Amino acid sequence: MPDLAPAPLINGVAARDMANRYNRADFRAWARRAHSTGGCAQPVHLRGRVTHLDPQTGEILRHYSTAQEPGGTLRVACKTRRASRCPACAETYRADTYQLVRAGLVGGKGVPATVTQHPAAFVTLTAPSFGPVHSRRTGKAGGVVACRPRRDGGTCPHGRPVSCTVRHAAEDPRLGQPICPDCFDYAGAVLWNAHAPELWRRFALAFRRYVARSAGLRVADLRDVLTVSFAKVAEYQRRGLVHFHAVIRLDGPGGPDAQPPTWATLNLLKAAVDHAAGAVAVSSPAAGDVPTKEHVWGSQIDVRPITTTGDLTDTAVAGYIAKYATKAAECVGTLDRRIRPTDELTDLPVSGHARRLIAECLRLGAVEEYAGLRLTEWAHMLGFRGHFSTKSRRYSTTLGALRQARIDHNQHQHDDTTTGRLPFDDDQVLVVAHWRYLGQGMTPGEALLTAALTGKPMPALDPSGITQGSTR
Predict the structure, then answer these.
(1) Which band of pLDDT confidence, cut at 50, 70 and 90, is reported for residue 7?
(2) In angstroms, rounded to a whole number, what is the distance separating the alpha carbons of residues 434 and 51?
(3) Which domain of life is it from (predicted)?
């Protein structure tokens, strides 16, 4: 018989709060606002007013004040990309990223459909090994095989077995955890994460240099005949290291509107990736017990052509990149917020592996030689401080343009304030606005009601019954 018990975090506090909100006289207005935010789980609370004036006469054409809103505040969507914070806003971000990536592969959003004729590949760049970890491996027949079998067994210098014969399930919490935490190079791991953005920048430069040299051109002259366009997303592996997935496309001069030269082929693209990945490195200085380290890409470099049909289509690639654009380091078992000075590391709800990575960030963050890496500030991201989703200028449209189009559409649907003056050039309206930020979040009952009203997923409630970031 199925377990019909309510989720443990939908407790008495949340139930009473939900009933109180539902029974208030302004519930219908509150529900309309919940719908207008798209079911945002962490809405921003604003107080203020907007006045539309005729600039020639001073006549007030329209006046809005948040005093007429439930609670005297206007709630607007938080627009975060993180699904762990707000599933509703993260879904909007995911959909926008999907459209952005796909437009760069098949056209649309200002990109011509002829872009499908340009060489394009899905490239994965990974981190090197910092020590063996538990992993889920599959054999040639597709079945799950033993994690790390060793015929002669044996132990590491710390006395732990170096072999693991477990066939790990997909959700096994041991996945990504070191076989021996004391053998794992935690300093190397967090320093690699911290230098990953610079490693990508150098990879992109080396890629262009290789293409130019292959064509018999100077790098400065390459832009006159070819443009390298890309869209990239960072993804965390369970072991706590970031790796990058990128769509790399070869265009003619100026971007997707121009055909690339005939010598710009998929084979050249793959050769340039392989060369650039092996040619670049970033060094970090020695400090204390940490030696000088040279940070390079791992050996697992994957380059797969993107086609309109076949195993790896434009739709599949766009969906994959968009999916990971809404995630951070949650799969490692860390937090989705910054570590506060008042936090006790031993009390944080994180995995043991994540705790040691965070501790290493905090330790190295206090070292003068690594001050520029801001490891303490980015300890919750295990040292990585780069953008999760980036693209080159000419790849396709921008997230800002997609958001603005949505705003313009909504304003066109609702904004009919006018002076009525002709000709239309004289029909100008002056808008005077004043806003003040009050806070962010919802009470547990509001979170439950919003999820029920909009059909959006609800973020986990704190055991106390309070949603994170609530202002109530």
Answers:
(1) very low
(2) 9
(3) Bacteria
